[in-house]
Design goal:
With 273 residues, the chain is an alpha/beta fold. The chain has a four-stranded mixed beta sheet with strand order 4-3-6-5. A two-stranded parallel sheet has the order 1-2. The N and C termini lie far apart (36 Å). The model has no long low-confidence stretch (mean pLDDT 88).
């Protein structure tokens, strides 16, 4: 926790002020990891609670928890070899990456609306295969494993990702909307972009990369549904939105597509207030 605070000081001018404010409100002990009870005492004031999960969970389960204002916290903790860039979501990612942003009302509104939409999404068999492949790859990379076994898992994940991209379901496309905003998103005007995505703020290496000025940053748009995330290494591009209205507008557009696919029937999703 202390090392993270030092990086926040280093990159303060590149981080969303809402994150910095939320991190201060969490008031974490820099010398130890907080218990789930301590976390719940911090976030109960905003109407949320946390629950422990075993690392990767299926998208539908994850979205259902978020829709009910329950944040899943992974019990797995990254090892020293992955201290600067974990190959899978872990306790550090969830607590230091996600929880500070929950104190921002605009963020909570968007997150919960997106979760409702994800929960109404249709999936296909490729989604399950991709989930299983990514879970296996991240598990192997998170512990000592033979390089050849990791290489096979990476190849399997790439193959599953290609299959999902060839025939993307609503779940696949909404996962990408989630990942390119909540996980890897930047926000603000072009000349003052700020990091707010949990995957950026829980990986010091990726936070420095995304804020270096050398990263490829595109305007956030419906284009995000065409691009998969590379979980095992830093991204080659990021997306930035001027404000939360942009995120909501893209989600509204996608909900319209969902309704059109279903013959104009209204999807059971939350509306943007």
């Amino acid at each position: 926790m202390g090392a993270h605070a030092a990086v926040l000081d280093e990159l303060r001018d590149h981080i969303d002020p809402a994150y910095l404010s939320g991190f201060a409100r969490l008031d974490l002990d820099p010398l130890r990891a907080p218990s789930i009870q301590e976390i719940n005492r911090r976030i109960e004031e905003i109407g949320w609670m946390a629950t422990c999960v075993d690392g990767y969970v299926p998208s539908r389960v994850y979205a259902a928890l978020l829709a009910r204002r329950v944040f899943p916290i992974a019990t797995f903790m990254r090892g020293e070899q992955h201290i600067d860039h974990a190959p899978a979501p872990d306790f550090v990612h969830d607590v230091l990456g996600h929880l500070p942003m929950l104190f921002c009302a605009e963020y909570r509104t968007y997150l919960q609306r997106l979760a409702h939409t994800m929960n109404a999404a249709e999936a296909n068999d490729d989604d399950q295969r991709l989930y299983e492949a990514n879970r296996r790859m991240s598990t192997l990379m998170s512990r000592p494993a033979p390089p050849e076994e990791i290489a096979l898992a990476e190849a399997s994940a790439r193959h599953a990702g290609m299959a999902a991209s060839a025939n993307p379901s609503e779940q696949t496309e909404l996962n990408r909307i989630f990942l390119w905003s909540i996980e890897f998103g930047l926000i603000g005007a072009a000349d003052e972009l700020r990091l707010f995505g949990a995957a950026l703020l829980s990986s010091h290496r990726e936070a420095r990369l995304a804020s270096s000025g050398d990263a490829q940053i595109r305007p956030y748009s419906m284009d995000v549904i065409r691009h998969e995330i590379e979980f095992s290494s830093p991204q080659c591009r990021y997306y930035a939105a001027r404000n939360y209205d942009v995120f909501h507008d893209v989600l509204t557009g996608y909900e319209s597509r969902m309704a059109s696919r279903r013959g104009g029937e209204r999807c059971d999703v939350a509306s943007h207030p």
